[in-house]
Design brief:
7% of the residues are buried. The mean pLDDT is 82. Helix 3 runs antiparallel to helix 4. The longest helix is centred in the first third of the chain and has 14 residues. This protein folds into two domains: 42 residues, no CATH class; 43 residues, no CATH class. The chain has 86 residues and is mainly alpha-helical.
Amino acid sequence: MVDQAVNELGFANRSEFFRTLLRVFNRKPEVISDIEDFPMKGPSTKSAKEVLEGFKKVGKYSKGFLKDLEEGLRDSDYFINDLPPK
C-alpha cells in the first residue's frame, strides 16, 4: 500500500512519503481524518529552485526552516538540483 502511494503521488521514496505524512499529522492531529491535504500530491515541479522560492514567497517560514528545506532539496533524488551553489 505504501509503495503504491509513493508511486501514485510522485514521492521519490518511502522516506519522503512518511516525512510528508508526519508533517501533515503534526500540523492538525485533532482532525487527521478531515485534512484538506489528503490525498497528498507531489509538487507540480521538480525544480528545487521553484519549490524553495515558493516557500520563501509565502513569507511564513523561518530562515532555519528554509535553510533545512534547501538542504533537503539538494539531497533529494526527486528534485532537480538547480539551486545556486552554497
